[in-house]
Every structure is written in structure tokens, then in C-alpha cells.
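FORM 12-B: Structure-to-Sequence Request
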């Protein structure tokens, strides 16, 4: 008999039993969904990634993102320099994967939520902050990152970071990769929203992914992803990203959204699967 949960609309999100690793398994993305949603997959050489690029992400790489002018033209009126994310699907080197399962405490659950903030540099869209929280919402890792390219735009409205925050950071992408390899392993389930962007920024290839943008689109409209801000208000009655984004807040929101999804799934009220978007 399916165990009853406390109503999911409660902000307290308190369960009659602790959440477990296996509770997340029905929501893992299969290989096709990872590819379809542009998650990095292993390339033919160690450290290389590859992507399946469909028509929905193809664009003219001779045009800039900020003002759609030729890349050779002067900076636009919005920014002193043109910004771009050409590196997103073209910089395929220096990707990592996690290693063998780590020894964890008997009460620890190998599921974590991760969220990253990115900035624009001369190289494109680069990692500027990485935050990991556990299923209690506790921050277990949080690092501001100094990008490898010259900073053009700290993207403050969406990153929550100032130019000073980024320029004074001492950690690098390689620092974060090394740190995460000591915290996470190949069996770790990672939760996030539109997590392919975070995996690309982190240069991490991982196949145990739960993505709230996909999970909640399947419960409503399979071809329409909702933003995290919308989902937080609709399902948690929580206002987030008021002035800017905060990676810790976003990661915690993903945790609480998945607790709702799990609760409904266990109660038999989660209409996740469809013939056209089957994940099993």
C-alpha cells in the first residue's frame, strides 16, 4: 500500500518518512532525454564532450547575442563589448566525470541539488559561482569563480554577482571540478533546473540527472518548460529571484519542488509519463 504523505502544498514540506535515494529514481532522465536536452555526453577521447545539436539551438554564429550585429562590428549601445555564448557547444575540452562511489554516513543520501551562476567573458559564457545543497537545503559547497577570459559583463541581474565579486575570486573552474570530485561520485543524483547549462559551465559529464524543468513540463505540457520562478510560485507559493538570482535559493527551490513531485508520484497523482515523452 502506498504510504500517505502530508499534503504537498504545505511550505513546511514535512513527510511522514525520510526521503530516500530510490524516491528519485523514477524521475531520472534517460539517455534520449539527456541528448535531446543538450546535456554533454562523453566524446571519443578522455576529457572530450559531444552534443547532439538540433535545429532549435542552431543559429548564425556570425551574429552576437546582445544586439544581433555582425561579430566584427563595434560594441552595441547596451554593452561596451559584444557578448556571446559561442563556447557553449564548441569548447569541448577539459570535461570531467565523477569517480567510484564515495563512503558516506548511514544517514546521508547521495542526492544533491546544484545551481550555477554564469558571466560573460571574451571567451563566452563562463562559470562564476557554483553552489551545492543537500536534501535538507544545507549548503555543502559554495564558491565564486574567477573566469578564464576577460570579464565583459557580470550579468548581475541574473547572476547576483558584481564585477568586484568575480574579479576578486581566486577559485578557478579547475578548482571547482576538483572540489566536486571529492564530494560527488558517479552514483550521485544531481537535481537542478535546466541543468544542462550548469553541466556545460562546470564541464561535467554526468548521467544521473533530475531536471525540474523537464519533470514539471511532463506533468503539464511536455513541450513547454516553465521557469523556476513560475514553478516556485505555483507549487511552493514562494517568491524567488525578486531582484536577482541566487544559486543557493534556486538549488533549495529545486529540492522542494522534487519533494512535491515525489509526494504526488507516491500518492498516484503525478501524471508524468506520456507515450511521446516516456522516460522509463
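FORM 12-B RESPONSE
SEQUENCE OUT:
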Amino acid at each position: 500500500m502506498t504510504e500517505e504523505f502530508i499534503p504537498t502544498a504545505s511550505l513546511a514540506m514535512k513527510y511522514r518518512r525520510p526521503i530516500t535515494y530510490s524516491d528519485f529514481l523514477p524521475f531520472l532522465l534517460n539517455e534520449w532525454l539527456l541528448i535531446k536536452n543538450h546535456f554533454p555526453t562523453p566524446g571519443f577521447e578522455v576529457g572530450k564532450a559531444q552534443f547532439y545539436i538540433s535545429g532549435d539551438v542552431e543559429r548564425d554564429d556570425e551574429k552576437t547575442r546582445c544586439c544581433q550585429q555582425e561579430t566584427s562590428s563595434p560594441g552595441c549601445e547596451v554593452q561596451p563589448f559584444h557578448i556571446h555564448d559561442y563556447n557553449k557547444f564548441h569548447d569541448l575540452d577539459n570535461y570531467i566525470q565523477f569517480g567510484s562511489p564515495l563512503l558516506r554516513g548511514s544517514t546521508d543520501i547521495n542526492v544533491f541539488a546544484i545551481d550555477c551562476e554564469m558571466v560573460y567573458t571574451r571567451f563566452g559564457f563562463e562559470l562564476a559561482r557554483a553552489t551545492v545543497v543537500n536534501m535538507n537545503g544545507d549548503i555543502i559547497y559554495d564558491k565564486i569563480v574567477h573566469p578564464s577570459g576577460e570579464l565583459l559583463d557580470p550579468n548581475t541581474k541574473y547572476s547576483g554577482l558584481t564585477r568586484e565579486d568575480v574579479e576578486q575570486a581566486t577559485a578557478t573552474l579547475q578548482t571547482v571540478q576538483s572540489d566536486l570530485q571529492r564530494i560527488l561520485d558517479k552514483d550521485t543524483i544531481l537535481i537542478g533546473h535546466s541543468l544542462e547549462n550548469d553541466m556545460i559551465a562546470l564541464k561535467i559529464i554526468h548521467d544521473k540527472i533530475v531536471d525540474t524543468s523537464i519533470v514539471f513540463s511532463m506533468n503539464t505540457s511536455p513541450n513547454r518548460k516553465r521557469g523556476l520562478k513560475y514553478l516556485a510560485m505555483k507549487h511552493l507559493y514562494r517568491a524567488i529571484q525578486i531582484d536577482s538570482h541566487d544559486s543557493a535559493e534556486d538549488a533549495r527551490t529545486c529540492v522542494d519542488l522534487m519533494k512535491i513531485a515525489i509526494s504526488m508520484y507516491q500518492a498516484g497523482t503525478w501524471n508524468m509519463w506520456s507515450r511521446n515523452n516516456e522516460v522509463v
